[in-house]
Write a structure and sequence with these properties.
The chain has 381 residues and is an alpha/beta fold. The chain is built from 16 helices and eleven strands. The strands form two sheets. It has a seven-stranded parallel sheet with strand order 4-3-2-1-5-6-7, sandwiched between helices. The protein is globular and about 55 Å long.
């Protein structure tokens, strides 16, 4: 059995990971589960999966959990507790399903310990890609992205010479507003933006998908995961979400990975990589899938994708600033304190008003993240 820790076990990816574990009980033992405030769900998970310990990042929730829980294992608290769980000596695989910048330090802790990383947190590589990937290379640690797009690229690259790759093509559904006219963007509501046409995801990533920032993050993530120059990473809109991404080779051939829009598919691939396992999951039926269509992204209506490319090309702390400003703007939108169009406006203003450090260490990244959040809040106010 392989020892698995799930960071963010009560979120969308965390719960879907546990759904896979139910099918493969003999293959995994649960080391740690972590949560933020969903302590009732965490309590239920401890009863079913019997982890060695848990970590709760929110101190108030930690106190409440300790007061009422029947769980007898270790109960860690705060960001330090999550980092300790990520870096636990018994971890063999860490499913990193935290939200936002909070995933950076736990990922580095897991790498330092020597665990394989199943990475479902884009913001880690967006904010600190160079630092994280250099650390993984030094420790000879595999980082396997759980995004359907990056999982597709990994599968398409299997057995291929890296020198033959001309470019990779990430597909995007286009979100709920792909066909919405520009004038209507001013009145987009939180409820409308949370209705993704194809995928069931957490709130933050669903808003990122609606703005296309999620795809911008995936472009930056792909740059680090596959060590590719920005000009070798393209995005196409594919509303059906059947082709999850493609790789074009020097001999003019193109490989694509297809499947149903179900996040459990890339999860199981990451957990067992490089093996494949039979799983009780919905299978793709091409006869009922219908026509597959493709469009060029509209970066005038969806400027977040353009901003992500620009931050990636600028390098240094620019992507960390991009991510921090986006987190603040998206949270404000979710709290009905900002309009949809203010999300890219906040990001662009923050990038314009900050100095970029060209070769940052983790201290520079943390400082840029903190300052960008302050500037983004000030812009929104």
């Amino acid at each position: 059995m392989r020892s698995l820790t799930i960071l963010g076990s009560t979120g969308s990816i965390g719960t879907q990971t546990l759904d896979i574990i139910r099918q493969f009980r003999a293959d995994f033992s649960i080391n740690y589960l972590t949560a933020n405030t969903r302590i009732n769900e965490l309590e239920e998970q401890t009863r079913e999966f019997h982890p060695k310990g848990v970590a709760i990042s929110d101190e108030t929730s930690w106190k409440e959990f300790k007061k009422h829980t029947s769980f007898k294992g270790e109960i860690l608290c705060g960001e330090e507790g999550v980092i300790a769980a990520a870096g636990h000596v018994d971890n063999q695989i860490v499913m990193q399903a935290l939200v936002g910048f909070s995933g950076v330090l736990p990922t580095l802790a897991a790498i330092e310990q020597g665990a394989t990383i199943a990475l479902a947190n884009k913001e880690t590589l967006v904010s600190a890609g160079s630092i994280v990937m250099n650390s993984a290379r030094e420790k000879d640690i595999a980082i396997l992205a759980v995004d359907s797009e990056h999982s597709a690229i990994l599968q398409c690259m299997a057995g291929e010479e890296r020198s033959m790759i001309d470019k990779i093509i990430l597909t995007a559904s286009g979100g709920p507003f792909r066909e919405l006219d520009s004038e209507s963007f001013e009145t987009i509501t939180r409820e409308q933006a949370l209705k993704h046409p194809n995928w069931v995801m957490g709130q933050k990533i669903t808003i990122d998908s609606a703005t296309l920032m999620n795809k911008g993050f995936e472009v930056i993530e792909a740059r680090w995961l596959f060590d590719l120059a920005p000009e070798k990473i393209d995005v196409v809109i594919h509303p059906q979400s059947i082709i999850h991404s493609l790789v074009q080779f020097g001999d003019a051939s193109v490989k694509a990975q297809l499947g149903t829009p179900d996040m459990r598919v890339p999860i199981i691939y990451a957990l067992f990589h490089p093996e494949r396992r039979h799983a009780d999951l919905p299978k793709l039926d091409l006869l009922t899938a219908g026509n597959l269509s493709f469009f060029k992204p509209d970066t005038d209506r969806f400027p977040c994708l353009r901003l992500a490319y620009e931050a990636m090309s600028r390098g240094g702390t620019a992507p960390a600033i991009l991510n921090a400003a986006n987190e603040i703007a998206v949270q404000a939108f979710l709290e009905n304190k900002a309009r949809f169009l203010q999300i890219p406006q906040t990001i662009e203003s923050t990038l314009q008003n900050m100095k970029i450090v060209d070769e940052p260490d983790i201290t520079h990244i943390n400082a840029a993240d903190k300052e960008a959040r302050e500037i983004a809040r000030a812009f929104l106010q």
